């Protein structure tokens, strides 16, 4: 078996020569896996990992780069003597630190470098010293300590001058120039360093240096010079190369430079045209900017496809924020609603759509295999975080985690080959037009509202049945008003005391979002950007002492994107399944320090009365495993429990009678029949926000499994109000109403029948519907007391009359002789 290590290594070389990337990576993984499971030294693994780390960094898979670098360093220290291992350790250290810096994990990067600093300084090797100073300079630059960063970059430059390779000089001088240009706004000073860097750097450095020179000319409003140097950068890839060519030559540019450098130059060129429009007001500049933003968007799709780690994909979604803000601004200036809608849609929940595609395309067996590997990775990753890095156990767990991730990678590659649309949008955004939103989503009534929160502005796209509006407001003013709105609405005592302030703030927020446009009454679908806030509680006007809430005129629902609502959620709708399952732990283990939810079991019993063959699990039966093993078999799931948008694991959590369920543990093993999940707990709609993707909450987790609708709470809610609104909601759901109208009627009835204090939006606005609003066909419970009450006295009299007639004595009918029958 030990010979397999060598043979897989040779195979990786052959596949690399033949440009068969997938096969090369599989051979590399097999080589490393066999060597780590043998009793030999790790020479092949270290060498291959050093190349793998470089490739991962260049293609932008930064999280996997960090993991492979850590593993590579660990194996190097086991396999090599001190004098032979430092080059490898330096390589692993450099790529890991750069990857951490790219991921904005500055504290972790600094601590990591501090741990390595003494070892590199002790060596006295000028190349090592140059690199360690370069890496520290990046950390200082990221923290805004600009002068310290300049000093360290210049130290790195000085040490590198005395080495044979001189690989850092060009990069160090370029970074000094960047600080002068971006932080001190001195583009002319910056260009002095850029031109010096060109003289001392190599061909690969020249690519991004030309891009920075172009940016300096853009700052100086010398646009022709800027475009000249952008072209010089592209010429490094191939003479005459343009941004358009990058789409079909992905491998060419990744081989010569990092993905991030290339994407930055494309975005910088588009931004230069947008900047030029602000200078000369020529529409051609805007059209050219939009053309290049479209190309950048396609490049981002390609970058996403070559990432393995979910964290790396999230990084690139965050990176795209700049692209979409500037593209929407260009669309706003040209009045191009179709382009604006395209970029609104591409700015959100792309990875969610990928997860849903995976869920839909995998067979039952493949889903089980995927879930098994993801669970192993989750458990092993947690064990690694708890282990001591210097222990033997840590290395064993590290090896185990590497093996599981490679198995998952190979599994996903196999699925890709079997199904080419795997990890691609089932409906490309370009195929979803504004007209389709008007026709299919709105069906001639109501409105669809897209929000985009940029660094400097808030954009609102309102699509109604017959008209479209694209609005813009200042980001700073919007954030101030929204934050004050949120700080008041989730605190009942404060809201009661400061209600007049809330009225003003809520009305201001409504006017800021919708300005002077008139929204038609009826349904409205909101696609927010980032954390949700309840539009239902916005105040649209006032009649005497009575405020008019947005809720009164609109049945509100929320969605991750318009594209989400175009998915086919009901492929399994004809499959047999149960209707309703309720979960209410009532009491919790003492270790959780959670108050009991008295009355939740009674509310569940009331709700279950609306459905035929309802199943309720309360008290000790409401366990985590019972929920996970059963929920996907039911059309409707109701949970009355405690929850939190954050936890010790830095993710949302839901509590059951025996244990807790974290969002990362919600892994689909089956395709659910579920169409609605109602999470009646505190902060079930909250979670960590990832720019470009949205909030990772439990409702999003259920959506990724293919469940189209959820009702969640945005803050810590009042128990009695929650029970009442939830019961009213199910009453209207059972009557066949659409989900948004059912929730609207439930809230309005709650307000109408409640005391003045309970009419505050704190009590009724927390629950929001996210996803599809379609009604759910159900079989009502045939509960005879309820039936009799509903049928009324006429039916009762009819039944009594029938009983009397049945039991009265039978009188024979006389026969008349001689008469024909």
Structural notes for this entry:
The chain has 821 residues and is of the alpha/beta class. Helices cover 59% and strands 11% of the residues. It contains 36 helices and 18 strands. Strands 9-8-10-14-17-18 form a six-stranded mixed sheet, with helices on both faces. A hairpin with a 2-residue loop joins strand 5 (539-543) and strand 6. It is globular. Residues 425-429, 783-791 and 808-821 have low confidence and may be disordered.
Q: Helical residue percent?
A: 55-70%
* Separation, N- and C-terminal Cα atoms: 100 Å
- The averaged pLDDT comes out at 87
Taken from the alpha-carbon principal axes, the silhouette is globular
Strand order, main sheet: write it out.
9-8-10-14-17-18
Strand content: 5-15%
Keywords:
globular; single chain; alpha/beta; 821 residues; 5-stranded mixed beta sheet; 59% helix; 36 helices; 6-stranded mixed beta sheet
In short:
The chain has 821 residues and is an alpha/beta fold. Helices cover 59% and strands 11% of the residues. A 6-stranded mixed beta sheet has the order 9-8-10-14-17-18, with helices on both faces. The chain has a 5-stranded mixed beta sheet with strand order 3-2-1-4-7, sandwiched between helices. Strands 11-12-13 form a 3-stranded antiparallel beta sheet, with no helix packed on it.
């Amino acid at each position: 078996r030990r010979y397999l290590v060598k043979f897989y290594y040779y195979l990786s070389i052959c596949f690399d020569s033949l440009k068969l990337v997938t096969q090369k990576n599989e051979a590399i993984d097999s080589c490393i896996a066999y060597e780590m499971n043998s009793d030999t030294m790790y020479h092949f693994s270290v060498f291959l990992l050093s190349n793998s780390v470089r490739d991962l960094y260049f293609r932008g898979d930064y999280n996997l780069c960090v993991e492979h670098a850590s593993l590579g360093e660990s194996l190097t220290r086991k396999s090599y003597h001190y004098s032979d291992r430092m080059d490898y350790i330096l390589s692993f250290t450099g790529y890991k630190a750069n990857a951490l810096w790219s991921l904005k994990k500055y504290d972790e990067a600094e601590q990591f470098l501090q741990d390595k600093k003494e070892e590199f300084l002790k060596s006295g090797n000028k190349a090592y010293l140059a690199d360690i100073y370069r890496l520290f300079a990046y950390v200082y630059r990221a923290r805004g300590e600009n002068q310290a960063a300049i000093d360290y970059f210049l130290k790195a430059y000085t040490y590198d001058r005395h080495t044979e390779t001189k690989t850092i000089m060009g990069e160090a001088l370029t970074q000094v120039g960047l600080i002068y240009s971006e932080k001190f706004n001195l583009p002319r000073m910056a260009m002095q360093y850029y031109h010096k860097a060109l003289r001392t750097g190599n061909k690969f450095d020249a690519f991004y240096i030309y891009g920075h020179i172009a940016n300096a000319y853009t700052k100086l409003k010398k646009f022709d010079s800027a475009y000249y140097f952008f072209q010089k950068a592209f010429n490094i890839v191939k003479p005459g190369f343009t941004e358009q060519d990058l789409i079909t030559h992905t491998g060419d540019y990744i081989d010569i430079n990092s993905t991030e450098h290339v994407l930055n130059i494309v975005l910088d060129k588009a931004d230069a045209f947008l900047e030029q429009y602000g200078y000369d007001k020529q529409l051609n500049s805007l059209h050219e900017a939009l053309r290049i933003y479209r190309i950048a968007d396609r490049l981002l799709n390609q970058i996403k496809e070559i990432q393995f780690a979910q964290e790396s994909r999230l990084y690139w979604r965050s990176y795209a924020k700049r692209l979409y803000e500037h593209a929407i601004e260009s669309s706003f200036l040209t009045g191009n609603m179709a382009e604006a809608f395209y970029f609104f849609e591409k700015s959100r929940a792309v990875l969610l759509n990928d997860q849903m595609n995976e869920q839909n395309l995998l067979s039952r067996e493949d889903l089980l295999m995927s879930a098994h590997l993801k669970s192993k990775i989750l458990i092993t990753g947690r064990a690694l975080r708890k282990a001591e890095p210097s222990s033997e156990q840590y290395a064993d767990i590290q090896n185990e985690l590497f093996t599981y991730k490679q198995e998952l990678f190979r599994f996903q590659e196999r699925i890709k080959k079997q199904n080419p649309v795997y990890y691609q949008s089932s409906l490309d955004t370009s195929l979803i037009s504004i007209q389709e939103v008007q026709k299919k989503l709105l069906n001639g009534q109501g409105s669809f509202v897209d929000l985009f929160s940029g660094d400097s502005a808030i954009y609102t796209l309102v699509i109604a049945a017959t008209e479209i509006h694209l609005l813009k407001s200042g980001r700073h003013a919007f954030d101030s008003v929204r934050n004050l709105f949120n700080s008041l609405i989730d605190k009942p005592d404060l809201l009661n005391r400061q209600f007049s302030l809330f009225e003003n703030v809520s009305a201001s927020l409504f006017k800021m979002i919708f300005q002077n446009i008139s929204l038609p009454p009826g349904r409205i679908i909101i696609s927010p950007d980032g954390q949700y806030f309840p539009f239902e509680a916005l105040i649209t006007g006032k009649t005497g002492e009575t405020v008019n809430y947005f809720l009164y005129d609109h049945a509100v629902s929320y969605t991750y994107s318009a594209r989400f609502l175009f998915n086919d959620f009901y492929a399994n709708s004809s499959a047999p399944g149960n209707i309703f399952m309720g979960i209410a732990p009532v009491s919790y283990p003492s270790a959780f320090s959670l108050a009991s939810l008295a009355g939740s079991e009674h509310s569940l019993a009331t709700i279950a009365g609306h459905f035929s063959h309802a199943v309720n699990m309360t008290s000790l039966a409401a366990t985590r495993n019972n929920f996970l093993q059963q929920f996907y078999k039911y059309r409707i799931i109701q949970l009355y429990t405690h929850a939190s948008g954050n936890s010790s694991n830095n993710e949302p959590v839901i509590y059951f009678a025996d244990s807790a369920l974290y969002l990362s543990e919600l892994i689909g093993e089956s395709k659910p029949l579920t169409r609605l999940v109602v999470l009646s707990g505190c902060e079930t709609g909250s979670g960590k926000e990832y720019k470009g993707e949205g909030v990772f909450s439990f409702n999003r987790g259920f959506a990724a499994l293919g469940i189209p609708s959820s009702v969640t709470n945005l803050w810590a809610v009042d128990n009695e109000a929650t029970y009442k609104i939830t019961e009213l909601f199910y009453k209207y759901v059972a009557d066949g109403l659409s989900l948004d109208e059912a929730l609207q009627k439930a809230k309005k009835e709650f307000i109408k029948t409640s005391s003045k204090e309970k009419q505050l939006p704190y009590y009724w606005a927390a629950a929001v519907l996210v996803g599809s609003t379609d009604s759910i066909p159900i079989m009502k419970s045939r509960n005879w007391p309820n039936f009799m009450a509903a049928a009324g006295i006429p039916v009762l009299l009819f039944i009594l009359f029938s009983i009397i007639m049945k039991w009265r004595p039978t009188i024979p009918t006389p026969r008349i002789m001689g008469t024909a029958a």
